[in-house]
Amino acid sequence: MCVHGLAWAFLPKSSKMNTLSFQPRQDFLPFCRPAVSEEDIAAVVAVLRSGWITSGPQVVALEDAIRARTGAPECILFTSGTAAMHLLFLALGIGPGDEVITPSMTWVSTCNLVELCGARSVFVDVDRNTLLASAESIERAITPKTKAIIPVHFAGAPCDMDSIRAIAKQRGIMVIDDAAHAIGTKYKGQEIGAAGTCIFSFHPIKNITTGEGGAITTDDSQLAARLRRLRFHGLAADAFERGQQGRSPQVEVQDPGFKQNLPDMNAALGVSQMRRLDQFIERRAQISTLYRSLLSSVDGIEPLDVPTWNHSHARHIFIVRVLPEITGLTRDEFMAKLKEVNIGTGLHFKSAHMHRWYRENRPVAAGSLENSEWNSNRMCTIPMFPDMTDEDVRGVVAAIRYVLSKTRTCVGAERQ
Ligand SMILES: *Cc1c(COP(=O)(O)O)cnc(C)c1O
């Protein structure tokens, strides 16, 4: 065990001076803060004054904006990405006896809903440095029961969809892109959303937000119609019809449905945010570049790699892996120490198979998800959001250097 105070006391004065010159910031810097402008606020207030606050013209406008941006033929908004996923699984008839392949390195809502629909989640490993699932690992997990494959475009980097779609097509299995991180991502020149069926999230940490909200884009118009019904009680028509500024009172239930329609108050925020999507991504890209250059000289703190195939990255979150063998800190200690100096961090994600229910109910063979586990134990999301200044970014890296300098001298002292 390392006794920080002791090792510190024996250090030469010059190295004390180095770390003592660090001044923690006065205010807490969260790892994410939504970029809400006065225009965004005015857009939401206008809805509140309009007399129609639930799903209506703003939902239509945001669906149009997402279709225009992605090139998707259809877009359907929901109250969250998770709700979108739920109704999509129901629309596809995913249920008992079915298997759904997903990386374990994902947000748990995907596998939770697979399980809640009565199907089974089958986890695949990801690349150690991009966190993307490959066609090869997915192919090995396919069985006659496989009903769907859900690759995740992690942190805004796209999976290699050509190879994944090719193996799925051969076997007639549906591919659903988890594009929660990927509004604005391009794969080989094409927007994510343009092809196939994709799920987006507009949770406050995502690249654009509606407060809570999500969307499905699809090139399957029958699936889109079914999703619209499932979203709103199973009624033949949706909440709002342009023609009559409301819903026809005579519409009937076609098949029982849920109530997962996004209110216009939320959609208006999304319409306003969509106008700044490119601006947001550009600022995130600048921050990423600055982080990469500043962190390149920090040992034991490793950013992710980007994929080798042609792509345009949406820079959703900035993840580093904390190597305890070099830094002398576990990831959890690293996060706690950054918090002490007013720097917030996140964890995206603890691998799904390592959560208690999945450990107990969906055990995996030891070593089969090695890269997911390796990252799950070391990864940490450091602050990145459009309104951060370069000074904030430099402050985060200075704070990282500071917390490491204290333990590094300690690791050194132990070895002596
Ligand atoms: C955020 C997220 C979701 C779910 O989105 P919600 O809108 O929060 O329900 C799904 N998958 C991934 C990878 C996510 O990051």
Helix % is 40-55%
Report the major sheet. Answer: 7 strands, mixed
Please give the count of helices: 16
CATH hierarchy: architecture of the largest domain: 3-Layer(aba) Sandwich
SSE series? HHHHEHEHEHEHEEEEEHHHEEEHHHHEH
Q: Quickly give the structural class.
A: alpha/beta
Q: What gap, in angstroms, lies between the N and C termini?
A: 14 Å
At the fold tier of CATH, the topology name of the largest domain is Aspartate Aminotransferase, domain 2
**So, the CATH homologous superfamily of the largest domain?**
Type I PLP-dependent aspartate aminotransferase-like (Major domain)
CATH class of the largest domain: Alpha Beta
Large-scale geometry: globular
- Mean pLDDT, to the nearest integer, reads 93
Radius of gyration: 23 Å
- How large is the share of residues in beta strands? 5-15%
What is the topology, as strand order, of the major beta sheet? 1-9-8-5-4-2-3
Count up the domains: 2
Number of strands: 13
Low confidence ranges: 1-17, 412-416
